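Problem 12. The chain below contains 206 residues. Write out its predicted structure in token notation.
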Amino acid sequence: MSDNNYFVHESAYVDDDVHIGAGSKVWHFSHIQSGARIGKKCVFGQNVNVGNNVTIGDYCKVQNNVSIYEGVELEPYVFCGPSMVFTNIVDPRVEFPQRGSDFYVKTLVRYGASIGANATIICGHTLGRFAFIAAGAVVTRDVPDYALMAGVPAKRVGWMSRHGARLSQADADGIMICPKSGWRYRETEPGVLRCLDHKEEDAVGS
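Solution.
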């Protein structure tokens, strides 16, 4: 394991060959399995399971009762709401087990995305940067950057700003303004949103 500059509650289990970054916290009854790589200042709530060989970036927050199975990767600043669900097998059958990394279908949750309580992410898809998955939604396709997804199956019902505010209808110039930050956004083509006020955003989605 890493140096002891992180916190693990006495009821939690951390297997061998795990890296936990500085300032991270692992709370009650959680389990971090072998091969997991966790960034700095992450928080894992009660009854969280991080599977073998999972990679989790810096500053992620995983709420109670979430399992992050092998094949799932979280980039920095991802939020996983209470009891949301990841999967890693498309067609599970108990009679014909599919175990090991050769069978697992990859899921990538990109920088700054948020997943609401009780949402389900079907494996094999990418959730774009700053995407927002509504509570109870079932994601069955790739999600664009900044998309607000809701429903079963989830569909894009709007756009969210990087700061987590729903963007209102565009003005005559096609501009949407974040009410929290004042940053401006525009659809550069159907289904593709860009921020006009933050230079780093030029690379979002690339």
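Discussion. The CA atoms of residues 71 and 106 lie 5 Å apart. Students who got a different answer should revisit the alignment rule from Section 12.3.
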